[in-house]
Specification:
It is built from eight helices and six strands, in the order H-E-H-E-H-H-E-H-E-H-E-E-H-H. By secondary structure, the chain is an alpha/beta fold. It has a single domain, classed as 2-Layer Sandwich (Transcription Regulator spoIIAA), CATH 3.30.750. A four-stranded parallel sheet has the order 1-2-3-4. Strands 5-6 form a two-stranded antiparallel sheet. Strand 3, helix 5 and strand 4 form a beta-alpha-beta unit. It is globular and about 55 Å long.
Length: 217
């Protein structure tokens, strides 16, 4: 991408473009600025579950704080950032979901991301989870006999978390955050429809802000 940006600038091509990346630390603020100068207007990438424990479990290769630093660099350069988000990953608990949403709230509040969408995790037969379910703490539900396209497969998660109910709150939250609404509110407000008490986030309310300040020093 660096070489692409340099060549676009050298040729003085006045175009707009966007990309789909992983939020790796090699995307420095300087590189983000170069991409913006070449016509980059947006970047999308997978934050997935905003939880360092689950990011490690899925071998994502990034941390929440790293994502914050990279996305802030893009945003400061005038590049819109869209985050692919996930819920319902194996062993993800209610507490994990609340903490993940708190991280997402802080990313919006800090101006790191401007757009996002929560996708429900789906286990597929040939994915790492489908091939090694025990490693992820789940039990697969055997597929019925089919003659074509064995792909999605159900699983039993011992946490028993009601992800469908949580998804309602997650979608409401992200919709409002994208419109600049309720970003400072306690994330538990999005789960008021649940019939049971929702735990408060264990994440420090200023975790992302402190991480960005430390990186700037």
């Amino acid at each position: 991408l660096k070489a692409l940006a340099e060549e676009l600038i050298r040729r003085q091509l006045n175009i707009s473009w966007w990309g789909n990346i992983r939020f790796e630390k090699t995307f420095t603020p300087e590189l983000a600025e170069l991409l913006a100068q070449s016509g980059c207007i947006a970047m999308s990438g997978g934050l997935e579950v905003a939880s360092d424990r689950l990011l490690t479990l899925m071998k994502k290769g990034v941390s929440v704080e790293q994502v914050a630093r990279v996305t802030k660099g893009f945003s400061d350069a005038g590049i819109l950032v869209h985050a692919y988000l996930m819920y319902g990953f194996p062993t993800q608990t209610l507490q994990d979901t609340v903490d993940a949403l708190e991280y997402v709230r802080q990313l919006f509040e800090a101006g790191c991301i401007q757009s996002g969408f929560f996708h429900r995790f789906s286990c597929t037969v040939h994915s790492p989870v489908g091939l090694n379910p025990a490693e992820y703490g789940i039990q697969l539900i055997p597929l019925p006999p089919v003659s074509f396209a064995k792909n999605d497969i159900g699983f039993i998660d011992p946490t028993g978390t009601d992800h469908e109910a949580l998804g309602i709150g997650l979608r409401k939250a992200i919709y409002n955050y994208m419109h600049g609404l309720c970003v400072e509110d306690d994330v538990r407000r999005w789960f008021e429809h649940l019939p049971h008490k929702v735990p408060k986030p264990t994440v420090n309310r200023h975790r992302i802000g402190k991480a960005l300040a430390a990186a700037a020093r």
